[in-house]
Amino acid sequence: MNATNTLELMNTLGQQAKVASALMAKASAARKAAVLRRLAALLREQVEPLQVENAKDLERARSNGLAEPMVDRLKLTPKVIETCAQGCEQLAAMADIIGEILGMKQMPSGIRVGQMRVPIGVFGMVYESRPNVTIEAASLSIKSGNACILRGGSEAIDSNRALAKLVQQALIENDLPADAVQLVPTTDRAAVGHLIAMPQYVDVIIPRGGKGLIERISAEAKVPVIKHLDGNCHTYVDDPCDIDMAVKLADNAKTQKYSPCNATEGLLVAKGVAQAFLPRIAEVYAAKGVEMRACPAAKILLAKASGAKVIDATEQDWSEEYLAPVISVKVVDGLDEAIAHINRYGSHHTDAIVTTNHVHAQRFLREVDSASVMINASTRFADGFEYGLGAEIGISTDKFHARGPVGVEGLTSLKYVVLGEGEIRS
Question: Of the candidates 83, 340, 346, 334, which has an alpha carbon nearest to the alpha carbon of residue 233?
Fold first, then answer.
């Protein structure tokens, strides 16, 4: 597709999304729920046809030499499809927040002032690999009364087209515009450049993928971006703490799954509990093949575990998002140093403290500058589904508008509403 045609295509998608967004904003809760339930049914009915289309992407990915972990992310297994269907049903069952009025207050003048929750309008989403994101984004867009333009990775184009077709079928069958969810049909990279530079049509861009993609979009976008670049998450083992709990949480936060952005990448340990804790967690990590990159004090204690792979940490390790069986480990003097380390080297995503000291726990909550802050829980819980959002469109480490897992509420805005009975300003 040449440059002129790509620009025309994106302008057309933008115009159609804008028109559809007005219709979606006034759609009833019952109708949006019906679309989501129908979409769930269609996904279950179409498992085999979806896998036929997915096989084309998998074959192409392997012939292009895509690494096997990336190929794995492309797979639309029956389990993945069922999870998508369940997500649609959960969203359908959730209360509709569009139109709710918050904080209504009576003013001395007699007027009453509050805020109404409304859809953002049109969002663009640029994402890589996982085709299930097409359903997550579409279902959240429908539930929140928005329209969206989706641009998946070229490696998943056949899967994404098949999924988007089901979404549009569910919309049409329930008398809502098919253009409420549009997939960019071309793999031309120029389409992304146009999508992120159409403020006349698009209200916000949500990138989901590697750091390179998100940095490019953040630098070039002419519309607001909801983003996170890194997931350098920490677990801090405090003095005092329950050592058994600390071992259990530090294990789960790192090893339950290595690739997500909410896996713990840095383990901080108060020196008062280091001798009791570090040899025990080292045994766990050694058994699971986790490499430990440690400060000198931590290295001595970690090396006591049989089979432990412990190497010296560099300055870069404190800032690293490994997404692999590797963790940095540092002994700190206590709470103050832990908080300072997290705020300096962390990515403001998710950080946890393991402690039995209530004052320490409250200080950690207040002073750690991250989107999710936890007491005595695994960082792996930082997820829209686990937070009761039904689904998430991504996780934001921004401070404006949306922060943390972005669900339906993150795709809405607030406008002031004023109720009067003839009052005039004196």
Answer: 346
In this prediction, residue 1 carries a pLDDT of: 67
Helix, strand, or coil (residue 195): helix
Q: How far is CA 245 from CA 138, 230, 364, in A?
A: 39, 27, 18
Provide the strand spans (E) within 60-111: 101-106
Name residue 234's beta-bridge partners: 266, 351
What is residue 162's predicted lDDT score, i.e. its pLDDT? 98
Judged by DSSP in three states, 420 sits in: coil
Long-range CB contact pairs, 57-66, < 8 A, 24+: 57/131, 57/155, 57/156, 57/157, 57/158, 57/159, 60/155, 61/155, 64/155, 66/155
Q: In the numeric block, which tokens belong to residue 151?
A: 């641009």
* pLDDT (tens digit per residue) in 319-336: 999 999 999 999 999 999
pLDDT value of position 394: 86
Q: Which residues touch 201 (CB under 8 Å, ≥6 apart)?
A: 11, 14, 15, 17, 18, 122
Which letter, b or e, does each residue of 332-365 get, where b requires 16 or more Cβ atoms within 10 Å of its Cβ? beebebbbebbeebbbbbbbbbbbeeeebbebbe
- 8-state DSSP, 21: H
Phi, psi for 368 (deg, rounded to 5): -80, 125
Q: What are phi and psi of 283, to 5 degrees?
A: -60, -45
The closest alpha carbon to 103, from 423, 419, 343, 369, belongs to 419
Q: Which is nearest to 42 in space by CA: 139, 122, 117? A: 139
CA dist 405 → 26, 138, 153, 385, 411 (Å): 26, 16, 22, 9, 11
Report the pLDDT value the prediction gives residue 129, as an integer from 0 to 100: 82
- Under-70 pLDDT residues of the chain: 1
